[in-house]
Amino acid sequence: MIRLSKLTDYAVVVMTAMIQGDGGPHTAISLAERTGLPAPTVSKILKLLARDGLMASHRGATGGYRLARAPDAINVAQIIAAIDGPIALTDCVEGAPGACGVESLCPRRGNWDRVNRAVRGALEGVSLADMARPSFPDPLLPKAAPALPATADAI
Amino acid sequence: MIRLSKLTDYAVVVMTAMIQGDGGPHTAISLAERTGLPAPTVSKILKLLARDGLMASHRGATGGYRLARAPDAINVAQIIAAIDGPIALTDCVEGAPGACGVESLCPRRGNWDRVNRAVRGALEGVSLADMARPSFPDPLLPKAAPALPATADAI
DNA sequence: GCAATCCGGACCAAATCAGTACCCTTTAAG
DNA sequence: CTTAAAGGGTACTGATTTGGTCCGGATTGC
Ligand code: FES
Ligand code: FES
């Protein structure tokens, strides 16, 4: 299974929790209470998100975090990049020499970039606003990725 | 970084090495020599691929492995599924109750399926034949995923 | 000044993964 | 029939990554 780190999952939970509140700033502790996640973990996530510019932080006595942009201007790719680092599936990515142990023998160094690009594009097609929609049983896909004709659901 | 397991990377290396040989069966040891990977690891990979029907194996004295299908009839999603298991980015996928610890509080259970579908579609758009192409500096994307307007290359 | 809040990093335990080894079954060659 | 060569399966171990926690310091409002 291509594991997305659990922290990234939590990040989406926290961010959607912020959407549902009013526009005011949210403190890390209040978000932890509303999401049921441990407070230090929430704090860690918020810090990572703020570092990448997805959150606007305000220090001091009445400080807190706010979303830096509108929910539909934030996509899943950005959240993943903030928590897990750049989106690259393999070690043999473009700029890293010597990362892959067999690169001297492997004639296909760099072709994973095509895969990376495809995945990245798919992730950019899903916004935070999409994730925040309460539930949608129908596969209407109003603004998701261009819906390849997925061969089967269970691959 | 969304890590794809290193074994999956190796699987593509091994499979492309098979393409470049003649049509005859390849033994695990000969493939290990040609790819520079340790023999037990190659054997393990081949076993996994054979179990999922991507390889045709022949036992006995003159046995070996062959590709079960043409290179352009095998896509990256299938290889990943064979090595890493089903493609699902998060623990909170459709059929797993209790997998995610916060599911009772999280109102968005199941929305990750949209992301999963998008990624899966992107992966299905890249075939093994694409990966075997010696090198392609141009982003023509002859048969890759429908190319969303990627915002930037460095996300 | 004081209290509340964010900031940055270090730290540890648990889970996962890569790699290896072992033994069994199957098949073809001699 | 016997033997050797190859895949099939499983179990084990060390290394790596991850999730989660903690603490001291900086910043702002009351
Ligand atoms: S360089 Fe890593 S797979 Fe070839
Ligand atoms: S159920 Fe897992 S994120 Fe909500």
Automatic annotation (TrEMBL), chains A, B:
Entry-linked SUPFAM superfamilies: Winged helix' DNA-binding domain
Name used for this protein in its record: BadM/Rrf2 family transcriptional regulator
GO terms for MF: DNA-binding transcription factor activity
Transmembrane segments: none
Pfam families linked to this entry: Rrf2
Superkingdom of origin: Bacteria
Organism listed in the record: Nitrospirillum amazonense
Lineage of origin: Bacteria, Pseudomonadati, Pseudomonadota, Alphaproteobacteria, Rhodospirillales
A GO CC term attached to the entry: cytosol
